[in-house]
Amino acid sequence: MRPEQQYIDLYAQAEALLRSHSAEPLNGPRAQAFADFERLGFPTRKQEAYKYTDIAKCFEPDYGMNFKRLAFPVNPYEVFRCDVPNMSTALYFMVNDAFQSTDKTLPDGVIVGSFRDHPDLVRQYYATLADTSADALTAFNTAFAQDGLLVYIPKNVVVEKPIQLINILRSDVPLLVNRRVLIVLEEGAQARLLACDHAMDEVNFLATQVIEVFVGRNAVFDLYELEETHTGHTRLSNLYVRQEAGSNVLLNGMTLTCGTTRNTTRVLLAGEQAELNLCGMAIADKNQHVDNRTVIDHAVPSCRSNELYKYVLDEQATGAFAGLILVRPGAQHTDARQTNRNRCATREARMFTQPQLEIYADDVKCSHGATVGQLDDAALFYMRQRGISLREARLLLMFAFVNEVIDTIRLDALKDRLHLLVEKRFRGELGKCRDCSVKCK
Q1: Of 256, 149, 166, 297, whose CA–CA distance to 210 is shortest?
Q2: What is the DSSP string of 154-167?
Q3: What is the predicted pLDDT for the residue at 78?
Q4: Which of 20, 65, 294, 338 could, after both became Cys, cross-link 368 (CB 3.0–4.6 A)?
């Protein structure tokens, strides 16, 4: 039986239960999303967009799904107590795919909360960027999602304090979670969001995630995603972003510990003078797998994009990067740059890279490049001659290599935190935070 058939049968059996326990705005697109999933099926490696990750295999295990929205016995404030220096943030939690808390310190008019509490606003934007007819994972998530997180910043409101979202996976049995996030910044708004993924239990988790981001004219938005889970966690995430004229967006996705991770990022530059910085970093060892696919769509003239992804792969880890910059007809004066640099610390590690340019305008500045190599033997020899052990020299070189991605962060406290987390990751100490129940290693 095909892996998707069990979910097609499950939907037919549980549709009424699914709808009755869902936020109302999610039920509108559900039937069409399911029809799209039924038509598409899970993508296979024969499809160019998914050639490096076997998606169907990710869904083969028998996972539970919490259709009745039963509460999981966990107090997120007691669970998440890391010794990493704290930032002053507006802190929120999602346990699996359920919103758990409300911070009262944000400016008037700003909303961070469940879809259930803001149906009219959610209905206006939900599933308008995420096209279920074109992507099976987006269709699957839209068909099965039951709630989500809304972040809404009104016109000209500047949120000084960063918003921090802690996604905690909690279950005693293997669990499939369908997480949904909707972010809307009106004209002139400014905000920064840090989303951290953690797994509390050592069971297998499969998390599908769809994030839709609408950035209005002259708005400024930073999104930082940090994955610290374990080798039994599979993350399949689709991020959709639309930028209006004069907007400025920074997207930075960092994978520190994972099992299998597949991230797809699609950004539409829909207004002139929009600017995008898209960055990513992956550190993987053992048999971990990290796959990033990006599409930057320059639909109008005079927009800028700068893309930088770096991987450090050790042991038998596998990495993949496929990035497309699309310059549409008439999108003159586009300035787009794409860079992918990778280090394989062993001969067993594998990296696949596919930078792409597709240009239909003649007055543009576009470049792309990719490198795959091992650690610099000359630099290792130089450091060992000065009394530095081989292990320490390797750590220093890997740490220096990824610093360029960390330094793109526009929040000093987070930048300092990431330097510490990355160093702990390379030293194998990331799962040893004092008094913390979350399993990061």
Answers
A1: 149
A2: -TT-B--SPEEEEE
A3: 66
A4: 338
Residue 275 near residue 305, CB atoms below 8 Å: yes
Residue 220 lies in a domain: yes
411, two tokens: 């929040």
Q: Is residue 437 part of a domain?
A: no
Domain that holds residue 304: 3-426
Cross-sheet strand order for the sheet of 260-269 = 111-114, 149-153, 175-185, 205-215, 233-243, 260-269, 289-298, 318-327, 350-359
Q: What is the DSSP letter of 207?
A: E
Distance between CA atoms of 86 and 54, rounded to whole angstroms? 38
Residue 147 lies in a domain: yes
pLDDT digits (tens, 9 = 90+) for 293-311: 999 999 999 999 999 999 9
- Tell whether the model's pLDDT for residue 83 goes beyond 50: no
Give dist(CA 55, CA 50) in Å, integer: 8
* pLDDT above 90: residue 437: no
Terminal-to-terminal C-alpha distance of the chain: 34
Residue 377's Cβ-count burial label (10 Å; 0-12, 13-18, 19+) is exposed
Counting the structural domains of the chain, the total is: 1
439 found inside a domain: no
- Say if pTM beats, i.e. exceeds, 0.90: yes
| DSSP character at residue 64 | B
